[in-house]
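Reviewers of the previous submission asked for a worked example of the structure-prediction workflow described in the proposal, so we include one complete record here. The input consisted solely of the amino acid sequence. No template or homolog information was supplied to the procedure at any stage.
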Amino acid sequence: MGKTTVEQSKDKHIVVNRLTYPEAINELELEKIAEGQIKRLIPITTETTKKAIIMKTTVTGMMTLKTYFNAIIRKKMFLNVVAELVAVVKECEKNLLNVNNLMLDWDYIFLDLRTKKIKCIFWPIVNNTNASSVPEFFRELPFRVVFSKHEDHGYVKDYLLFFKNNRLYSTNSFEKFIYEMMGREIQTKTYFPSGSSGSGDSQSFSEKAPAVKGSTGGSIAYNPLQPAEQIVCPKCGKAGAEGAKFCTSCGSPLAEPAAFDFGNTPAASETTVLGAEEYGGTTVLGADEPEPAFPYLIREKTQEKISVNKPSFRIGKERRYCDYFVVNNNAISRSHADIITKDSRYYIIDNNSTNKTYVDGRVIPVKKEVEIFSGTRLRLANEDFVFYI
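From that input alone, the workflow returned the following C-alpha cells.
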C-alpha cells in the first residue's frame, strides 16, 4: 500500500492513500466500495493526478479503535469488538473482495460509540505492497489492550490458544469460537418442510434445545425433523418402515437403531452444543456441515469444489504430474500452475504455461509467486476458478 496519511479535526478524520508502483485500482472492487454497497465499509473517492493515484475517505462522528482501547477493557467489550471485526471480514468475503486490502490498523478502524458498530476502510487495489494479514491482526489484538484486573483472564488465554492450535485460519471457525465464548447462537439450521422433495425454497429455525428427562448434562441438541428411532438402510440410505427387517427398496438387512445415550449427543443430531453450562445455559448451534480443513477452489465451469490440501498443489492436464487434473480442456498446460501455502498465506505460480495464468484479470509473470486471497479470481488459459479460504 502506498503512503497513507490522516487529517483529524474535532470528530472528522480524512484518510488519504497515495498509490505507489506497481499498485493499481481494482475497478470491480472500487465500484462496490465507492457506491456504498457494502454497509460495513466506508465509501471512498479516487483522483488521478500526473504524479499519483489518490484514494480518499472521510469519517465523521466515529472514534478510532485505538482511542476506544485506551480505556480499561472488559471481556464483553473486547469480544464485541472482535465479533464486529469478524462481521466486516465476512462481508468482504461474501462480496468476493480481497480481505487483505482491509486497512487492519487500529488507527484506521472506526467505532460508533453509541451503537458499538465498527466500520473499516478498504482500499480496492491490486498488487498491494502492504497487504494486511487477517489472522495476524486478530492474533496480535490482545497485546494492544489493557484488560480489567477485576475479571478472570482465562478467556484471553483461550483466545490465543485458538491461533496456536489452528494454523490454517478460517473466518467461520474463528467466528464460531468467538460466539461460543460470548454464549450466542451463530447460525440457523436449514430444512425442507414436511412433504417437500428437497428442492425449492427452504425454511430455517434457530432454537434452544429442550432438556431431556434423565439427562445429567443439562440441555442437549436435537433435530425435530428426524425421529429418534428411524431405521435407515446402510446400503441405499433410504428410510425403512417401522419394525421392518429388510429394506423394501434394495432388500438389504436393516440394522437396529442405536440405543439413545443421555451422556452423549444423539446420533440423529447434526448440531453440537458448545458450552451450555459454562455460558449460562445458552445453547450454541453449530454449522450444518463440518468446517473445511483446507482452502479450496471452485471451478466455475462445473461448480466443482477442489480442496487445496497440499502445501504445493499443482493444477494441469497431465494426470501423472498434477494434484487436480483438468479434464476436457486442451488449452490447459500439462503442469499449468501451482498453489503454494506458506505460513497461512497463499500464492500461485505459473509454470511457464502456454496460455498463461491470470489473477483478477491480470496476467502473472512466469515462475513468480503472486499472493492470492479469499475471493481471488484465477484464470488458467480459458478456465476460470475462484479461490476461497
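The mean pLDDT is 76. We consider this example representative of the routine output the project will generate in years two and three.
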